[in-house]
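ingest -> validate -> predict -> emit
validate: passed (alphabet ok, no gaps, 195 aa)
predict: started
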Amino acid sequence: MNDSIRHLLNQITVLEEELQAALHEQEASVLFQIKGKRVEFERSIVEAHRRLKTGFLRWLVSYRPQNLITGPIIYSMIIPLLILDLFVSFYQATCFPIYRVAKVRRGDYLVFDRQQLEYLNFIEKFHCTYCAYGAGLIAYVGEIVARTEQYFCPIKHARKILGTHARYARFQEYGEAENYEARLEEFRITLGKKK
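emit:
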């Protein structure tokens, strides 16, 4: 990787961190405050949210029938998701310490805070819990796989691929054989640092 690309990647990283901080600051200052694991809204917002809540019977009557019909298919995916969660978590717990790779914090990816929204009824909260688990789990698994790839094979593909993880941009160029073993060791050392 040439210095120009390395410099651009560093700038992107800094900008992404600044954007995340600004978004978090804006969210917290506008509507709510985060106190530990609890999200707190101003009293007037909580009351407005409660007035907007759709009751269960009204929600059931106005809900799209295709969503109700496909519900069993959607929720049956919980079985493979739980199995994936179990196996990937076991893999990380057993192998990452051996490789000296910092573990991925599950709580950074699996966040369940939508249940605190007063404008959602209990069915909507249940849906949100399921989606938060599924999307969070996939992101959690993606980071574990990304760290594994960085440990074993931090080389870009020859063909352009979609959906690469954040670590991929810093991988060694395809066919760049010079100093491969030394660079591989550098990649492995950085994995031991907490992020």
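Residues 122-152 form the longest helix (31 residues).
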